[in-house]
Automatic annotation (TrEMBL):
Species the sequence originates in: Salegentibacter chungangensis
The organism's taxonomic lineage, starting at the top: Bacteria, Pseudomonadati, Bacteroidota, Flavobacteriia, Flavobacteriales
Alphabetized Pfam families for the sequence: Macro
SUPFAM superfamilies, alphabetized: Macro domain-like (SSF52949)
Domain (Macro) ranges: 1-176
Name assigned to this protein: Macro domain-containing protein
């Protein structure tokens, strides 16, 4: 699904964050040490090759709500923005940390003149954040940031399951009305 807000485009799709052609940057749901891990991080590091971790290592550790940017190495994207989301039930206030991840990722995108970014549903896998609550924060944070964008033209939310895609699409349909 896609919705247009002025010149800005928000898209959703069911897919793999490690296979995003035509996007300047992809976002990693990282761990504090910026090591390979599983889920999104595992998929991105595997596809990017060992050069990604070599570039990440000196940038670690990062704290919940923080983000750092690296090259895309063997990925089809020029950049990877690594965000550390909150572990649900441990890093509080979780909503603030998650919001900061999206804010910081968008700031880094702007600073690097990035036009398009694909986000996974940060924190909603191994870190246990309920999908619907996390989706609301993701969508609202992007919407609030749009007026300040100078370079960004497109955000894509890449969801791993049909159910997750449905939740995002329902939320975006509400905005469309
Ligand atoms: N493409 C898109 N979405 C995916 C993919 C993929 N290839 N794989 C999983 N998802 P997670 P977190 C979905 O666990 O909760 C890592 O080991 C998944 O279904 O990747 O922030 C790190 O090293 C879920 O909806 O990230 C950290 O230790 C969402 O992406 C920890 O997990 C996020 O799941 C981070 O946990």
């Amino acid at each position: 699904m896609e919705i247009r807000i002025g010149k800005f485009l928000i898209e959703t799709e069911r897919g793999d964050i490690a296979n995003q052609q035509d996007m300047d940057a992809v976002v990693n749901a990282a761990n504090a040490a910026l090591t390979t891990g599983g889920g999104v991080a595992g998929a991105l590091h595997t596809a990017a090759g060992p050069g990604l971790y070599k570039e990440c290592k000196p940038l670690a550790p990062i704290k919940p709500g923080e983000a750092v940017i690296t090259g895309g190495h063997n990925l089809p994207n020029k950049f990877v923005i690594h965000c550390l989301g909150p572990v649900y039930g441990r890093d509080e206030p979780a909503a603030d940390f998650l919001e900061n991840c999206y804010k910081r990722a968008l700031e880094l995108a702007e600073e690097n003149k990035i036009r398009s970014v694909a986000f996974p549903a940060i924190s909603t896998g191994i870190f246990g954040y309920p999908l619907k609550e996390a989706a609301q924060i993701a969508v609202e944070t992007v919407l609030n940031a749009i007026p300040a964008f100078k370079h960004l033209q497109k955000i894509k939310f890449v969801l791993f399951s049909e159910e997750d895609l449905r939740v995002y699409n329902e939320m975006l349909s509400e905005i469309k009305k």
